[in-house]
Design goal:
Number of strands: 12
Number of helices: 8
Strand order of the largest sheet: 2-1-3-4-5
Helix content: 40-55%
Order of helices and strands: EHEHEHEHEHEEEEHEHHEE
Largest sheet: 5 strands, parallel
Mean pLDDT: 85
Shape: globular
Structural class: alpha/beta
Strand content: 15-25%
């Protein structure tokens, strides 16, 4: 079955060019030229992954991402301009899975899309500490890879693909420190470059999501200058 990708950008030349490349690679593509029409379209007809430009009319990419995150954990890649570092960090805090700076290589975008889709496959059952069924239990934490479901004390925590993989990597070895580089490899793959601050932004967002359900959540510890570790109850 073909994966369906949503492209949201007010630059029609980019939409036409990227759509052609993705369709040639076997994807189905839906395009939108502004955030408002994209939100309506994505609610009515969900897709497997969305690529969002930040600067758009009627509703920018940040607001669109925020609205989408209120409804689903749809994998999202942000397109940012060359010097929009603040926007990148804000996008990651809002729940983007990845970002690419314009101008970009379509081959790079294609690789990022494939990487995210692979990580979103329900058949993921790898990782130390996971039972053969794909379920990992760490005291109050339950991670079910086959359902892409995270439970904390029985409450559902809506995580993006990247956030889920980070929690899984940390919880697989309670008490052991994971460096940022190790977490990048776990969440993005060894061939993808991601700034260390990206991991910090994801971890902050993960903590915030858990604390909405349990304000005493402190299982993910920061070891300054070293990395992070998961503390089991």
């Amino acid at each position: 079955m073909k994966h369906t990708i949503a492209l949201v950008d007010d630059d029609r030349n980019i939409l036409a060019s990227v759509s052609m490349t993705l369709e040639q690679e076997g994807f189905q593509v839906r395009t939108y030229t502004d955030g408002e029409s994209a939100l309506q379209g994505l609610i009515a007809r969900p897709v497997d992954l969305a690529v969002l430009d930040i600067k758009m009319p009627r509703m920018d990419g940040m607001e669109l991402l925020q609205r989408l995150r209120q409804r689903s954990a749809l994998p999202v890649i942000l397109l940012t301009s060359k010097d929009e570092e603040v926007d990148e960090l804000m996008g990651l805090r809002l729940g983007a899975d990845d970002y690419i700076k314009k101008p970009f290589s379509q081959r790079l975008l294609l690789e990022r899309i494939r990487t995210l889709l692979r990580r979103n496959e329900v058949s993921r059952a790898e990782g130390s500490g996971a039972a053969p069924t794909g379920v990992m239990v760490r005291s109050d934490l339950t991670l079910d890879e086959t359902k892409h479901q995270c439970l904390w004390k029985g409450n559902d925590i809506q995580l993006t693909v990247t956030e889920f993989l980070l929690v899984k990597a940390l919880a697989a070895r309670p008490g052991m420190v994971k460096s940022r580089d190790q977490l990048i490899d776990a969440a993005y793959g060894e061939n993808i470059y991601v700034d260390d601050r990206t991991i910090d932004s994801h971890i902050k967002r993960v903590r915030k999501k858990f604390r909405v359900q349990d304000d005493s959540f402190d299982q993910i510890e920061t070891l300054y200058g070293i990395g992070y570790r998961y503390k089991e109850n």
